[in-house]
Amino acid sequence: MLSRQVLLLLSCCALSAWVNNPGLTCAADIPVVTKEPLSAVPPINPQPDIVLSEDDLLLCLLQIDKINLNVMLAIYAKPSGTFIPLSQISQFLELGIKTDAVKGTAEGYVARPVKSFVLDMAERKVQVAGKQYDYDPAKVIRMPDDIYVESKLLAQWLSMRIEANRFEAVVNVIPFEPIPLQERLARERRGSNTWGYGNYSSLGYPLVKTPYRFIDWPSVDLTLSTLKGSLNAGSSPGATGSYTGSSSGISTSYYLNMTGDLLWMNTKLDVGGILYGENSSSQSNGGNLVMERVDPSGKLLGPLGARRFSIGNINPLSLPLLSQNAGNGVMVSSYPVNQASLFDKVSLKGYLADGWDVELYRNGSLLDYRPSNPEHAYAFVDIPLVYGLNRLKLVFYGPQGEKRSETHVYNIGSNMMKPGSFCYQVAATDASASMFPTTQTTTMNRQQGTALTWRSTFGISKRLTIDNFLASEMIDGEWRDYVGGGFTGYLNMVQVDVQVTRDLTSSLLAKQIAVQSSFDPLLFSFQLADYDSSWKFGSGMTVYQRQWKFGVDGLRFKFPFSRVSSCRLALKYTETEYSPDHTEKNAAITNYNQLLGINNSNSVIFQRVQNGTTRQDNVTGTSYINLLRGHVSLRGGVDYRILPDRIINNIEATGDIRLTKTFQMINTLGYSPGNSTFSEALTLNYTAPAFALALTGNYRTDQNWSAGIRLSMNLSRDPSRNKWVRDGSMRSQQGSIAARAFLDENRNGTFDSEEPLLKDVSFFINGQNNNTLTEKNGIAFIKGVSANTPADVSVSPTTLENLLWVPSGKGSCVVPRPGRPAEADFPIIVTGEISGTVTWRKEDSSKAAPGIIVQAVNGKGDVVGKTLTAYDGFFELKGVPPGEFTLRVSPEQAEKLGVVSPSKSVVIPPEGAFVDQIDLNLESISADGTGKE
Length: 933
Prior knowledge:
The protein is mostly beta strands. It is 6% helix and 53% strand. Mean pLDDT is 79; it is low at 1-42, 190-200, 233-247 and 439-447.
């Protein structure tokens, strides 16, 4: 049983914690430590002389990187060090280590299964991530309730800094690599924001600019394909390209993407077509060209405060109740780069290279899929955004086994704006013509699609945002002028968006109201749009008078199988009135499943069309699955109709099998019951470090066939080696970072030619570990980073070869852009640590001196570091640079206390060191001031 003093201490701490944190469950969180004689524990090896007693017991609040976890940790604080319970801290930090105090063993993993952990006190060995270490047995103590490890030793095992502040009764843990608990807490903090405008939460790292250049080396994706046969590959399921070859002839096609700086702007060019074959001189698959400057901090164009300036093929934010107005033109915008286009929806569009397909995920659930197509484009239009955080992920699959992804984050309401903020957009576009006309579309009607638009948004308060817009658009050969505005408001978990647009040419009105709310776990949305009769609709708009939508998401069903995840349902009902006697009703049921690792999306759409006295009912559906098992990836889909007749339109399945590290086989099977046609596309890929090569074959049972060869590569300028680098992946539209790590011996923060460059150092990108290591030149060339988005980069301390090496700063923020790597330096400095105790000495007795300021002073008299002693007089002075120092008690404090300021000389060698047991004794000044008592 505990002594009365310890029981009183536990009760007071528990009561204090409960008062400050009502959600704290004291009985569960406070470990009960029984006072059992150590001799009762079966011996393994002779125990060290250190004994942990009740007098050393201290109850501390546990923090992770200064964030309270609302749990109390019982530690033992002794002058020789602080002893942490291994099982308790593992439980609270969700590390995955289990201990057996009786046997003196512990096993499991540190945060992630790949980092295994085994402790055997009988052998005095510990193994972390497969590496075995010895340890001082005096620093690992068995108690009946747990195994207690000295904090510095435990910090080395767990790859984290453990700061035990005994004076404030706090244990703060700072992982060198983010652990799952830390990442989960960060997600919860981001998700709690009700107006996540901008979607980027800066870590406060200093921005390292990447200047635009007049002209720079571009990054180039190039694909050349030669095809022979009678089959148009673009029309067959799973085809490896979109060719237009002649019958039984040979055709050679190309796809080119270039990105880089030109005229102090980032330029992107996509173009494809036929190099050789029938009518090759006139056949083009079209393309895009855009030149733009992007600054997420909003400092473009001086006083205009723009974030984006674009010329070419642009996609401005849409205006409520008006057309999208995407096309060729010019745009200036101060809206965040990833701003949602409407209150509850967003559209993602882009260029899709030959043979590539793309999947769309929202918060991990598979939403939709777009196959390769002759238009070389993908469009996910009006993607519904659920209430709260929406993480949209595009996963692209290439014809030669390539895979890349893009992530876009939106927080409903993403149209809400921070109070006092203002954003605008002005654009002039022409959606009627392509910059690179294709053979399919060369004579579009130029009587509509041209538009001039203005939009602005004001943040009035945390719960209210207002916006307004002006537009002038060419419709049916006539310019029509519009003015509109509205507001978005948030009240008690309900968000409302109201917009009104007036056609100044005809004095007609269009109105829209949208509502979203959440009643955990259900998400509700409602939208009503109403147009006056005779309203003139612009290019690409659906012509109707009234439309209302209602949706429910978040319906979940759990299966009674341990390896089967839950199923989520979404229901959506839409009713559209085209005229008083013409209406259309649609009800859609979509479910998203993750069963045994299989991502599955199923949609069934019920449609009823009433046109006068005629009624027609239709029921259609689609299903798509994705399964990844080791080196095998399976994707498949089916498109069917139930009413008015039962028919399967198309079935398709694709299997990717990784045969070796360099060889991969892709086989796609398709069947169209309508014309009883079976098709197969087989591709054998070889991926070399400098290029990717594929042999392709397509066959259809209607006697159409083709065979071909495809060569693709990326050519980029690598600043880490200052030369051109070839790569088999298509990366020209992604960003890259050249991060250099060096030992900053003179601590000036910049690289000097004589300073050592560090090899095998890795970095965190936006809190996620990146496996790219620095080479001999100290540079890690990190590819595949999101472009035009701030990236917080920091050094992974666990990859530094010396524990006393630390980054001189927290990190750097860079904004990589396509074709132009962002460059940043990361100086590493050598440090030392000094620890000891301060005591009061009077006559023949001494006692601990808490709250004393201890300073380290260099030869110039500058204070290079200071700290406070804990309740027992113990101090730790960290981050001390190499050199000779005087360790002293603050003279000002010593004068106030009436004591002599004691001091000792300490030397931190150039390679750094832990200097322990530096003790300072406080002695009172004698009454005459000439000496000591």
